[in-house]
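ok posting inputs for the pyridoxal-5'-phosphate job
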Amino acid sequence: MSTVESHPSPLREQDTEVASWLQREDKRQRTTLTLIASENHCSAAVREACQSRITDKYAEGYPSRRYYGGCEVADGIEDLARQRAMQLFGATHANVQPHSGSTANLAALLALAGPNGRIVGMSLKAGGHLTHGYAKNHSGMLFDARQYGVDKDGRIDLDEVRDLVREHRPQVVIAGGSSYSRNIDYAAFAAIAHEFGARLMADIAHPAGLVAAGLVPSPIGHADVVTMTTHKTLRGPRGGMILANDEAHKAINSSVFPGHQGGPLMHQIAGKAVAFGEALRPEFRDYQRRVLDNSRHLAQVLSQNGLSIVSGGTDNHIVLVDLRGTDVTGADVEERALAAGLSVNKNAVPEDPRPPLITSGLRLGTAAVTTRGFGTAEIDQVAQIVLGLVRGEDPERYRSVVQDLCEAHPLP
Ligand SMILES: *Cc1c(COP(=O)(O)O)cnc(C)c1O
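and the output
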């Protein structure tokens, strides 16, 4: 927050502790290359909307059906966010109130399966999300969850999914993951779910921006319900959203409110509206195209130089590196990368022999550095740094290259 330094700041005057932490975070982001696949940098306009005074407003309910007075502005903003979301994804119903992706998922699962219902989702180990039925997550406690994995090539095996659905007879099948770099065949998933009387929930938390840009397959028209986060490739403020078909949308709305949440975070919804407006512009599609070019290039350079990529490549912004053929673990590289100024995250690979806090993989993502303006030339430099760190070069060697890249490509 350069404003904290250069302009009068009520925060700095009143609370130097919080102000200096935030200043430190601002500096950390400016001087670090974020390759964490779930992160991005939203625009200054989105941030401005999110810090607006509407954070003070209670607006329980939905536009024109609120449980509080004075909601005309909240109604206007929420309607705008919903309309833009529907236009962006070609959906007929949107709920923009979920506070996060996890909240969206739990609300959707409770709407479709009910407490103690049966669900089938991808296992955490194979690249699914906590909220897809992991034992220690409420989704694994509230539901009778069964999980599918990936085959030895790192791909979803639809025969395995079908066998599991036939056996378990869930009310909900979940398609989507957090470290899955391949396109998902939503039509095939829907056929399996519907054959056995289940509903399909697609969780596009990661590729939402690519889906909106039409660059990867969309689940709209196949899935009954689509959940997502707004802050990953979609590049909006932190939050969640649910799209639903005509049949499911009423149950979804009442599951979000009053089922799961109280007052919506209106300032975040204002930020979502701004981000959806940005995503409707042609420049957003160009941005997403560069995200894809960059991730394909990253996967290619790493594999040409001897690193193994799970599934052999990528269809989206994620590159999952399998370090099993090297002498280093995911945790080793994560730590070295931080010392060099790269923020990456360790990640389990399919059938990972190492524990989750160590892992044998590295999950890289190109959404945030592409927001900074990176093209394939800069990605080459990043790939060389990652290769050097895996080989065991001193991370300090790379600090100045990373700082030069950061300075040449400032944050939005
Ligand atoms: C990130 C993610 C979520 C959860 O998002 P939060 O906003 O962190 O709760 C849900 N599903 C998938 C697949 C994700 O990758």
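notes: The first strand starts at residue 33 and ends at 34. The domain at 53-279 is CATH 3.40.640.10 (Aspartate Aminotransferase; domain 2).
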